[in-house]
Amino acid sequence: MDFSSKLLENAVYEMSQLPGIGKRTALRLVLHLLKQPEERTSRLSAALENLRKKIKLCKNCHNISDVELCEICSSPKRDRTLVCVVEDIRDVMAIENTSQYKGLYHVLGGKISPMEGIGPQELTITSLVEKARKGGIKELIFALSSTMEGDTTNFYIYKQLEGFDISTSTIARGISVGDELEYADEVTLGRSILNRIPFEGSLKAN
Amino acid sequence: MDFSSKLLENAVYEMSQLPGIGKRTALRLVLHLLKQPEERTSRLSAALENLRKKIKLCKNCHNISDVELCEICSSPKRDRTLVCVVEDIRDVMAIENTSQYKGLYHVLGGKISPMEGIGPQELTITSLVEKARKGGIKELIFALSSTMEGDTTNFYIYKQLEGFDISTSTIARGISVGDELEYADEVTLGRSILNRIPFEGSLKAN
Question: Which of A107, A138, A167, B146 sits between 20 and 30 A of B204, alpha carbons compared?
Fold first, then answer.
C-alpha cells in the first residue's frame, strides 16, 4: 500500500502488528479514529499506556490486578485449600462467571510449548511449587485446555508436585449441557462415557 | 464481563469502541500488548496520538497528507484539467495502484446520507464548486460507489455544477476482467451491455 502520509502509514503499521489485524483492517480502524473527535484517540492511547505501565500481577496468583494482592486472593470468603491452575486471565473470568468455584487460582501465563519456545521457566510453575511447599493446599485443579501443550503442562506440574500431600484433579470433559449426542465428537463422547458419574451426583449439580 | 483490574477494563472498553471490535477481541488485543515489550504499546499509542494531532488535509483535494499541499496536487506531471471525485483516501489509494490515472482527485470525506445525518455541508462539496468556479477543470469523473447514497451525491454535485463548462463522467460499471458472465449479477451484466464500447476501444485499453 502506498500512503500519502507518513503519519498515517506509521499508525497503520503499528495497528497491523496486533494479532488478527491486517493492513486493510488497520487502515479502516485508523481512518475511523480520524473521523472521531481528537479526544477519542487520546483516551484510547492513554488507556493502553496506563495499562502497560501501571499494571501489576497479583503476587500470589499472578493474575492481572491493579494492586499487589488481587481481589480473589485477598477475599476472606475464598477457600485457600483449593487452587485452580489456569492459563490466563480469560480462564479466570470464564470460571468466575459460573459462580461455581470458591477456591483460589494460579495463573500460569501460558502453556509449555517447545514449538513456540515456551519452556517451564517462562511460566509461573516455580512459584506454584513454592506455594505447595509452604503447605495449606489440599487440592489442585488443572483447568488447562486439553491440547498436547495443555496435557504436557499438566503432566509437568504433576511431576513437580510428587511427594507433596496434595490431591490433583482435572475439570470434567464431556458433552456440553443441552448438546445432542449425535453431533458430539468421538473423543469427547468417549471420555464422557469413561468418566461417567453416579446419577445421584448429577442430580446434586443442578 | 467482570474484570479484576480497572486499568484492564478501561483499555478493553476503549479498544472495543473501534468498529468491528467487540469486547472479546478487545481483550485479546490488550492481553497481547501486555505480553509484548512495553515499547510496543508506547509506539502504538504515540503513532495514533501523532497521527490524530499532526495530520493535515491537503488544502486542494482534502486528501490526508503530512503537508499543506499533497504529493499528487503538487506534482507537475499531473493533469490539472481532470478531477476524480472519490469518497475517501482508500479510493485514492486504489485508483493510484492502477497507474492508469494521471489527473487530480477531490476527496469528499463521505457520501450524502440522510439516514446517518450526513448532508452536503458535512462534505467538501462547496470547495469543489469553488474550484470549478475558478476554472481550469475540463472533466469531472465521479468514482463514488454505485449505492443510493453514491448516486444521490453524484446527482447533487452534478446539479451544483450546472452552468459551468465542465464535462462529467462516471467510472464504467461492468463485468470484472476475467469474470465468467454466468456468475455476474443482472444489474452489472445489464449495464455492461447498455454501456458497451466499440471493439477498437477495448483493444486500445490493453
Answer: B146
Which whole-number Å values give the CA distances from B104 to A128, B17, B95, B137, B138, in the listed order? 65, 35, 11, 10, 12
Minimum-distance CB partner of A4 among B8, B54, B89: B89
Span A72-93, pLDDT tens digits: 999 999 999 999 999 999 999 9
Selecting from 1.10.940.10, 3.40.1360.10, 1.10.150.20, 3.30.1490.270, what CATH number does the domain B69-171 have? 3.40.1360.10
pTM: 0.79
* Cross-chain Cβ contact A47/B17 below 8 Å: no
**CB within 8 Å: A43 and B14:** yes
> Top-level CATH class of B6-54?
mainly alpha
- Cell numbers given for A199: 446419577
Enumerate the residues of chain A whose CB falls inside 8 A of the CB of residue B58: 4
Residue A153, min C-alpha distance to chain B (Å): 19
Nearest CB among A1, A29, A33 relative to B93 is that of: A1
Geometric angle at alpha carbon A44, from A43 and A49, rounded to 5° = 100
The secondary structure of residue B176, as a DSSP letter, is P
CA of residue A24 relative to chain centroid, distance: 29
Q: How far apart are CA A190 and CA A194, in angstroms?
A: 6
Q: Which of B44, B24, B47 is nearest to A51 (CA)?
A: B44
Asked if A31 lies within 8 A of B89 by C-beta distance, the reply is yes
Cα–Cα distance for residue pair A61/A105, rounded to 1 Å: 6
Whether the pLDDT of residue A115 is over 60: the answer is yes
C-alpha A152/C-alpha A148 separation (Å) is 6
